[in-house]
Amino acid sequence: MFRILVLLFLIILPPYVSVIAQVEIAQSSIPGPNELSLIVMKGESGLRYVGSVIEKNERELTIMTDEGTKITILLSNILDIRAIPKSLIQDGEYWYPNPNDSRYLFAPSAFNLKKGEGYYQNTYLFINSFNYGITDNFSMGLGFEFLSTFGSLGNGSFDPIFFVTPKYSTQVSENMRVGVGVLVGKITDNIGGFGVSYGLVTYGNSEHNATLGLGFGLFDGQLRSDPVITISGMTRLSRRISLVTENWFFPADVYRGIISYGIRFFGETMSVDLALINNNDFSEIFPIGIPYVDFVVKF
Fold this sequence. Notes:
By secondary structure, the protein is mainly beta. Helix content is 14%, strand content 52%. The protein folds into two domains: 23-94, SH3 type barrels; 118-298, monomeric porin ompg (Porin), CATH 2.40.160.
């Protein structure tokens, strides 16, 4: 009899504890009445409400939407609730934050992933990279090229193209962020490795910004004293579209540049870049530039 009671206790208790935990989590995270709230409901539909909390108790809360409608919601039906800045409401519509503000196409900005955030990026289907926020100011990235990784394994060797990208950044004023980082990796055993240490200055906010970067490189065992320069920027046009540009200037007899310009389409956790890469040499073959495609999934 005792064993039966214990078994029933174990079966009944977890759901009960789960419900209590959900209510406690929702109660502790409910924004105040002077804040704008984003509420995400449970279920496959994932309904979302934006409004200000005007009443709440242990079981439910009532919000006033921007359209002036009162809605009462059971706490047990809420998947997530959080405060959002009023600047994300444009013409009465919620514009979710830019899901990919820490990077342009390949070059980074001085915005950083929050602790516990991460993303997967795929470029041209073959180049894969992962980035993860260790803290709010420090992130770590790792990337590899698909064909060299698995092609070399098929030949009985392991000679992949890969790179590692740690980055530290911090905010120094309302519209200014600075960052430092390293990009190190290996192309092939024959060509050898490479490394770039860089500094970044980003001006603007998550939706509209520009970044100047200076990088000092180590290529095939030789350190270059003249920096690689990057000038990049993005600006948001609508709820789902931004313009992106990323431009590299490499030291030679004179600085030679590679420029890019494109469009970023995005949702709340995913973005797709369609861009063109160009310079004097490319334009002789491709007048408008070489197509560039990538997508990013944030988690």
